[in-house]
Amino acid sequence: MKADIEQRFDKWTAVPGWRVEIYSPDRQYEWDEFVAQSRNGTFLLCRGYMDYHADRFTDCSLMIYYGRQLLALLPGHLEGQTYCSHNGLTYGGLLLHPHITLVRVQAALVTACAFLQCHYNVTELVYKAIPHIYHRYPAEDDLYVLTRLGARLAERCMSSVVRPEMALPLQKLRKRQLKRARTCGLTWVEDDAFHLFWPLLEENLLRRHGVKPVHTLEEIERLHRSFPDRIRLFRVCEGTETVGGCVVYETDCVAHVQYIASSERGRHSGALDLLFTHLLTVRYRQVPYFDFGISTEQGGRILNEGLLFQKEGFGARSVVYDKYVLELDKPAAGERTKHD
Question: Domains of the chain by range and CATH?
C-alpha cells in the first residue's frame, strides 16, 4: 500500500520503507535474474561478466529493496571516498525493475547515497548512465533524478549508431572499398579463433593509440566461453590470413562493436567495408541498433574525426554516453516531493 511521505531533503537520509544490502557471491542467481528482467540491464551487468576483473576493483554493488521487494540494483565499486558505477564497464548506473516508478527511483537513489555516505564515508557518486539504445523499455528515470539532486554532467562521449532497418545509404568511398574487397576475393567468417585476431588488434591499438586492449586474450576467451551467444568474433580473411575483423557484443536491443582492427593489407583492400556491409544488411538486419562504438577520447573532449568519418560512411549517426558526478558531502537538492 502506498504511503505518501512529504519531506524536504535537508541531508542524505534513507527514505522510510527502503533498505540497501551489499551484493555477495551467494546472491549471484538473484542478481542475474533481476538483470534479465530489468528495464535496462544487459549481460555486461551480470556477475559472470562483471567479476572477470574482480581483482582490479573493490566491488561494492548494491541491492535496493522497498520492503521485501528488490526494485533496483547499483553495480559499483569503491575508490577511496568515491563510489563508481562502474569504471570497469562501458556503462553502469541503476538497473530498474519493470514496475518501479519515477518517484520510487528517486527514493532508491537517495537511500543508496545515504547508505554509502553512512557506511563508507563516500563523498561523491560517479555514475555512467546506460545509453537509451540499450533499454528494453524506457528507463531514463535516473537521468531526471540525478539532475534534480544536483548532479553535474562530467563527461559526454559520442558513439556512432545505425538503425539497420532504415540505414542511410553507404557513402561513395565505402561503396568503392566494398567493390575492391569483392574484387580481391576477401571472405569473412564467424568463429572463436580469437588467437588469430588478437595480435592484429594489439598491433593496431599500440601503433595508433599507444594502448593495449582492455581485455587480454585469455580474458576475452574466458568471457566468450561464459557468454557464447552474446560475444561474437567476425574475421575477414585473404586466403588463410586474417586481414581484419571485429568483436561484437550482442544485447537484446544492440549489436555493439567492442573491438575493430585491420592490417595494412586489409585497409587497402576494403576488409572492414565487406564485413560491416554484411553485418548491417544481413547478420544484424533485424536488430534495432548497431553501435560502432565511441570516436572520442579524454571523456569526449577530443573527437577522432578520421574514425568518425569511417563510421558515418556506413550511415551511423550520434548517440551519447554520459558520465555524471553527484556530490554527497552537500545536502541533496530538490523541492518538496513525495516518496513511497
Answer: 5-156+322-339 (3.40.630.30), 164-287 (3.40.630.30)
